[in-house]
Amino acid sequence: MAKTAIFMADGTEECEALLCADILRRAGSEVTLVSVMKRRKIESSHRVRIRCDAKFEEMDFSDCDLLVLPGGMPGTEILREHKGLRKLLRKFSEQGKTIAAICAAPYILSDLGLLRGREATCHWRFRDKLQDAELVEQEVVEDGNFITAWGLGAAIPFALRLAEKMEGPEAAAHVRKGIDYVHPLCREDGSPVPAAAKSEIEAE
Known about the structure:
Blueprint: E1 3-8, H1 14-27, E2 30-35, E3 41-43, E4 49-51, E5 54-55, E6 66-69, H2 75-81, H3 83-95, E7 98-102, H4 106-111, E8 119-120, E9 134-135, E10 140-143, E11 146-149, H5 155-167, H6 169-178, H7 195-203
Parallel strand pairs: 1-2, 1-6, 2-5, 6-7, 7-11, 8-9
Antiparallel strand pairs: 3-4, 10-11
């Protein structure tokens, strides 16, 4: 069972965070919603009140396998400015552990210089902030120990990729079937549609 920490702040995009928590837990991972606000309760970017599992200061991250940064504003900026989180992200990067970010949040990794020379994606409004990264026009991008996604619309495939990374292909496939998720450019078993067929689908 892998252990994941998902970081939360006032203004975090709630669906990006909670979809990851939901799908990873379905796959068998232990997930902790971690508030950086010095209180467990946060108010999301769309005014949804969420009680997190722990405050940042209460956590021991030494046995975590995955760190997840949701997007949303001003949540992304609050996460970016948190000194403890910045230090933790650098440490995880040095250890080669998996770090994932979606929507605006890849900007945090770029700001730390962690995406230099790596393929990555993010929300289109923040692409000019991904300095030194190689931007890829793809909803989910994995390069080494970093996984990025471009926004809420990619939250389910992003979370499924994390589930596969943490708990294996069979666990991710089981969750995919359980939630009845079929990607528009994938077959029902989750395998990619050939390029020629993709072109036909996209042209419709």
